[in-house]
């Protein structure tokens, strides 16, 4: 089967996924009977183009590397902007990797909404729409016989959502707690070793995981959006990031770490959700954890999620020092999942 694929957003994650598609092309065809052609790419600063006959993906990657416009690609037609692109692109599946807006999930939610209404399957690495419009978009997908998958939105390519959907049938998730933000974890594990807050932030920026203005991470909003996304999907919470009041790590000092160590503890920024009588309570705050606990041993860019269930007890999922490849792989795994389900429905 050949899929017509389109990209809304063609930044680092999408480009890494594009290279993965090219390197795995023979494997996908031989093992999964999956073929593809690229019928559109939309970017914020390098143009938006469509092509019914197909875009040369290698040439598109070359244009991005050289910071050149995609409009120069042979056999393509330019489109004014990304929203217009979603309206006109001839695609079976769209990969959405546009920038995050944590408080409303836009404009990504609009792109996803428009694609689903056209019956286009959507794969997203953007946690904003999952946190802000999950139930609406899932209902749209059902109404238009399309699929919306988003494994790469939390913990990169680690199979959190697939774990619940495919490996835990008839299991209810009662709560979860996780270390979900790499920037703050680099800073906190650095302070645990005696480095200053500023030194830890500089290290996170050197690693390329923190922006020049890292307030979104430091104030706990990234972890909060991820926690809401997890709660909406895993616990049917129907919550919104505006309902969470995260506490960031700015108030912690080296003296706090020294005092905690005397008590056999250290600090981690924990994101949690708990199902209670009045619904799902979501909290994000730095907490002192025992030095021999799961979370104390999650250091640097690593992440962890501990899920409490009714039938399987506690399940811990760890991600050790992820790279860009892991997030790109999430797009590939979602592509294969949709492809497999499409083949079964025939």
Order of helices and strands: EHHEEHEHEHEHEHEHHHHHEEEEH
Strand residues, percent: 15-25%
Oligomerization status of the protein chains: single chain
Low-confidence stretches: none
Kindly report the average pLDDT value.
96
* Secondary structure category: alpha/beta
Distance between the termini: 11 Å
How would you characterize this protein structure?
This protein is α/β, with parallel strands linked by helices. It has helices at residues 12-23, 25-32, 57-65, 82-88, 108-117, 127-143, 160-167, 182-192, 197-206, 215-218, 221-234, 254-262, 324-345; strands spanning 2-8, 35-42, 48-55, 77-79, 93-96, 121-124, 148-149, 173-179, 265-276, 279-290, 303-309, 314-319. The strands form 2 sheets. The chain has a 7-stranded mixed β-sheet, sandwiched between helices. It has a 5-stranded antiparallel β-sheet with strand order 10-9-8-11-12. The radius of gyration is 21 Å and the shape is globular.
Describe the SSE topology:
Elements: E1 2-8, H1 12-23, H2 25-32, E2 35-42, E3 48-55, H3 57-65, E4 77-79, H4 82-88, E5 93-96, H5 108-117, E6 121-124, H6 127-143, E7 148-149, H7 160-167, E8 173-179, H8 182-192, H9 197-206, H10 215-218, H11 221-234, H12 254-262, E9 265-276, E10 279-290, E11 303-309, E12 314-319, H13 324-345
Parallel strand pairs: 1-2, 1-5, 5-6, 6-7
Antiparallel strand pairs: 2-3, 3-4, 8-9, 8-11, 9-10, 11-12
Helix pairs in contact: 1-13, 4-5, 5-6, 6-11, 8-9
